[in-house]
């Protein structure tokens, strides 16, 4: 007889009771492969089963049926402890839960003989309270009511701006995005039975470039601004793409200043002013950056944290398709054109290769084809 628990409908249970009448119960259970004690219990509950069938609940399980947690009060206390730690953004590990459970069990007069906080108990506890191990997310998340609140506040702020003092060509929305040049995800579709899954490393997985993508409000393209790793402080033009180097290929404040000076040179006179729409990154919020922009008569509209996915046009319409298509180019290079050096190590794509990828995408109207003046 199978030891696995089975689920039976009320109608099926009533049928078992009716079929077992007038026959040898032991032989009946052996023939039907049923538990003798279960059948005896069903026969004792016949009136209740008939009542459920009459009420149309013949396919429902009895409310509250099934094995209940032995230490419900202890588990409720553990759940509150976990919720409190996560509210304060503390990490909660499986071992932490087991340790806290054993310490708290003493307060409930539960001995270690009764409760051992085993891995099996922990698995069931997490399942009962809909908990699981999660990887931290890099995106800042807001509750729905906070999103609405910030969106309305942003609209009120924008409604109060006098846009007549800006020419469309002097209003720019920008965003930075980093792209890693190595192998992408370390997950792949593979046969279930395989015990070893091999995804080769290129040897330069941490190599990256940062690209500043921007649009002018008159609908004209703004050439991508590529940031690579290096020490050259001058902007150079490679096949139509502007390239600058920084120590770690990040968009530092010095790089942002050069980009601003390049895109909005200090030639604004009279009532003409410039306007930048960007996110609230640290380089944008710095006091030195604000003074730098004020000296050049450039105002800024800053998208608050957690709202870029709703309000920032480059982040929504440009960055994601840009990174998706660049990832396709990188994968094609790794699979078909990547070469090894004299030591047998893979060689990462050169600057010209990356520039060609960026050019092929920006020229294909993938990112700017739907951006027109309003």
TrEMBL record:
<feature type="domain" description="HTH CENPB-type">
    <location>
        <begin position="62"/>
        <end position="135"/>
    </location>
</feature>
<dbReference type="InterPro" id="IPR006600">
    <property type="entry name" value="HTH_CenpB_DNA-bd_dom"/>
</dbReference>
<dbReference type="InterPro" id="IPR009057">
    <property type="entry name" value="Homeodomain-like_sf"/>
</dbReference>
<dbReference type="Pfam" id="PF03221">
    <property type="entry name" value="HTH_Tnp_Tc5"/>
</dbReference>
<dbReference type="InterPro" id="IPR036397">
    <property type="entry name" value="RNaseH_sf"/>
</dbReference>
<dbReference type="InterPro" id="IPR004875">
    <property type="entry name" value="DDE_SF_endonuclease_dom"/>
</dbReference>
<dbReference type="GO" id="GO:0003677">
    <property type="term" value="F:DNA binding"/>
</dbReference>
<dbReference type="Pfam" id="PF03184">
    <property type="entry name" value="DDE_1"/>
</dbReference>
<dbReference type="InterPro" id="IPR050863">
    <property type="entry name" value="CenT-Element_Derived"/>
</dbReference>
<protein>
    <submittedName>
        <fullName>Pogo transposable element with KRAB</fullName>
    </submittedName>
</protein>
<dbReference type="GO" id="GO:0005634">
    <property type="term" value="C:nucleus"/>
</dbReference>
<keyword id="KW-0238">DNA-binding</keyword>
């Amino acid at each position: 007889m199978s030891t696995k628990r089975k689920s039976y409908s009320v109608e099926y249970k009533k049928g078992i009771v009716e079929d077992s009448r007038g026959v040898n119960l032991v032989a009946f259970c052996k023939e039907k492969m049923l538990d003798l004690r279960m059948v005896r219990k069903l026969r004792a509950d016949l009136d209740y089963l008939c009542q459920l069938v009459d009420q149309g609940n013949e396919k429902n399980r009895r409310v509250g049926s099934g094995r209940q947690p032995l230490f419900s009060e202890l588990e409720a206390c553990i759940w509150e402890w976990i919720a409190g730690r996560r509210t304060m953004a503390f990490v909660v590990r499986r071992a932490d839960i087991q340790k806290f459970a054993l310490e708290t069990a003493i307060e409930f007069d539960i001995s270690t003989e009764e409760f051992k906080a085993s891995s099996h108990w922990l698995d069931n506890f997490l399942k009962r309270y809909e908990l699981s191990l999660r990887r931290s997310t890099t995106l800042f998340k807001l509750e729905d009511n906070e999103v609405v609140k910030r969106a309305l506040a942003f609209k009120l702020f924008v409604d109060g701006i006098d846009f007549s003092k800006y020419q469309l060509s002097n209003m720019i929305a920008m965003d930075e995005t980093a792209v890693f040049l190595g192998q992408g995800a370390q997950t792949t579709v593979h046969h279930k039975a395989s015990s070893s899954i091999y995804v080769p490393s290129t040897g330069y997985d941490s190599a990256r470039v940062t690209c500043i993508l921007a649009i002018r409000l008159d609908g004209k393209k703004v050439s991508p601004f590529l940031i690579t790793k290096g020490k050259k402080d001058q902007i150079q033009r490679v096949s139509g793409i502007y390239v600058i180097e920084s120590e770690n290929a990040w968009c530092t404040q010095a790089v942002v200043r050069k980009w601003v000076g390049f895109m909005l040179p200090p030639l604004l006179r009279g009532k003409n002013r410039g306007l930048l729409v960007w996110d609230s990154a640290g380089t944008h919020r710095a006091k030195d950056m604000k003074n730098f922009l004020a000296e050049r008569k450039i105002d800024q509209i800053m998208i608050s944290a957690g709202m870029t996915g709703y309000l920032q046009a480059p982040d929504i319409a440009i960055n994601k398709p840009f990174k998706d298509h660049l990832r396709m180019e990188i994968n094609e290079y790794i699979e078909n054109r990547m070469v090894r050096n004299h030591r047998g190590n893979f060689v990462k794509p050169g600057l010209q290769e990356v520039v060609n990828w960026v050019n092929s995408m920006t020229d294909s109207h993938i990112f700017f084809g739907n951006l027109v003046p309003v």
